[in-house]
């Protein structure tokens, strides 16, 4: 089962997460799609493969709907995620000082708990179609070869 999560303020990350879920299930993978608003760090202990599409909001902050998840994750010092493989697609805008900061922060916190990268995080500027295709290709290669 591939868990696809997203955090979005105006729908871009949500829409890419939906596309990811649709394409993966059309390719024969079992997927589940979830807003980080409805997710907890503890649930990650049951997840083997996590794909997360997240934007950055405010001043380098998570989207509002992901604030609780991120706070809980930062506070879960004892959480071990060494069983978890993950890939992050980060949306942002280079006009902002803290470009794609939430994606970077989420990456750091997962990695600090022992989770392993399926593929390197890709940070996207406002035109993200090509980066999404690239990320999706890397993700499917990594999943298919494991
Ligand atoms: C009010 C506002 C604040 C933003 N702050 C940041 C930021 O700090 N860093 C960044 O990289 N992008 C920032 N962005 C850009 C968004 O992350 C980008 O537009 C993204 O595609 C939004 O995706 P979403 O619709 O999934 O929320 C901001 C955009 C707005 C409108």
Q: What can you tell me about this protein's structure?
A:
This protein has one domain (35-144): Rossmann fold, CATH 3.40.50.360. 36% of the residues lie in helices and 21% in strands. The chain has helices at residues 12-26, 67-75, 101-112, 129-144; strands at 2-7, 31-35, 49-55, 85-91, 116-117, 122-124. Strands 1, 2, 3, 4, 5 and 6 form a 6-stranded parallel beta sheet that branches. The longest helix has 16 residues, at 129-144. The mean pLDDT is 97. Flavin mononucleotide (FMN) binds next to α1.
Summed up, the helix count is: 4
CATH fold annotation:
Rossmann fold
Structural class: alpha/beta
Low-confidence stretches: none
Spell the H/E element sequence: EHEEHEHEEH
Mean pLDDT: 97
What would you report as the Rg, rounded to the nearest angstrom?
14 Å
Which molecules are bound besides the chains?
flavin mononucleotide
Beta-strand percentage? 15-25%
**How much helix, percentage-wise, in residues?**
25-40%
CATH class: Alpha Beta
Taken from the alpha-carbon principal axes, the silhouette is globular
Q: Tell me the number of strands.
A: 6
CATH architecture: 3-Layer(aba) Sandwich
CA(first)-CA(last) distance: 13 Å
**Looking at this structure, what is the CATH superfamily?**
Flavodoxin domain
How is the main sheet built? Answer: 6 strands, parallel
Count of distinct structural domains: 1
């Amino acid at each position: 089962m591939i868990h696809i999560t997203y955090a979005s303020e105006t729908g871009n990350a949500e829409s890419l997460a939906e596309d990811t879920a649709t394409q993966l299930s059309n390719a024969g993978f079992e997927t589940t799609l979830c807003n980080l608003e409805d997710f907890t760090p503890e649930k990650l202990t049951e997840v083997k493969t996590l794909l997360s599409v997240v934007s950055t909001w405010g001043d380098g902050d998570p989207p509002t709907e992901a604030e609780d998840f991120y706070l809980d994750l930062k506070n879960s010092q004892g959480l071990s995620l060494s069983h978890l493989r993950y890939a992050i697609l980060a949306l942002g805008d280079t006009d902002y000082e803290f470009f794609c900061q939430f994606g970077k922060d989420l990456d750091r916190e997962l990695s600090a708990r022992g989770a392993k990268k399926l593929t390197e995080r890709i940070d996207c500027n406002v035109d993200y179609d090509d980066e999404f295709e690239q990320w999706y290709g890397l993700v499917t290669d990594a999943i298919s070869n494991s």
